[in-house]
Input
Amino acid sequence: MSDQSPTTQTMAGRTVLVTGASDGIGAETARTLAARGATVHVTGRSAEKLRPVAEAVGTEPLIADFAKLDDVRRLAEQVSERVETLDVLLNNAGGTFKPTKRTHDGHEPNFQINHLAPFLLTNLLRPQLAKAGSSLVVNTSSIGNLMGKIVLEDLDYEHRRAIEFPAYGTGKLMNIVFTRGIAQRWSGDGVVSVAVHPGPVGSSFGRDSWLVGLLYRSPLKRFGTISVPDGAAPLIVLAERGPDPEVNGRYFSRFKVDGRENRQAHDPAVIDGLWERSAALVGLS
Ligand SMILES: NC(=O)c1ccc[n+]([C@@H]2O[C@H](COP(=O)([O-])OP(=O)(O)OC[C@H]3O[C@@H](n4cnc5c(N)ncnc54)[C@H](OP(=O)(O)O)[C@@H]3O)[C@@H](O)[C@H]2O)c1
Output
């Protein structure tokens, strides 16, 4: 249970949007930040699962499927109708998806759901982030970034074989690269961005993937994973800390800054190239 006593109102006066708030660490983070005084807006893919979370935080649910970029555009419109300023954007929706499938927009799903959709959402909400004067974007990444490989000429795995976990790792590497791109491009707007690995959390993670689901649903799960509240804790700590320029563009492994990163996460050509190509793909350039 979240402690709702006035002494823990660390988030009072702050407006937060949490994606992937219908389940797992996103739902836990949303509930906790609301209990600590924030106005929390929540979005998820499943209306049924999001409803109780929205009721707990006291705002209307925002349904969007990140496999449909038009849903993301509509979501950004709904958020901008509701809020003038956004203090914290928690880009947390994501997961592992079968890479042989395609999204409604024709993209490899690990690429679109983990990177392209939050890239679009964050860009569309830049005015609200900038208007806050100083704001924070938290991208939920993963230690899986170490297994990723960004090929700028083949973001959709059309010319190489896609294997599920490395494709997920590539999406999570993109979360770090995007974090760095925001730090380089938007610091003049007062926007600070960080990426975070929450740890191996025993959530619903892997439910869209036969292989990962098997690992996460096996009886061994309880030995290898941490609880959902433990997994949400680093996100909550970062949101409470707020926009600290000292950590702008950096990747946390749970509470520790500068976690282990893929070499590509520091490559300026990848940081710029991913931004430019993503912007072109979603019609922002
Ligand atoms: N669990 C781990 O071990 C672990 C480790 C490292 C990183 N992470 C990252 O942590 C984040 C949260 O994961 P979790 O562990 O809390 O997993 P989870 O319980 O499966 O929650 C995932 C959330 O993402 C949402 N989502 C998935 N696909 C979506 C789509 N197409 N459109 C919109 N929303 C979508 C889900 O919405 P619905 O429920 O409405 O479908 C749900 O709210 C993810 O980005 C994941 O990659 C997890």
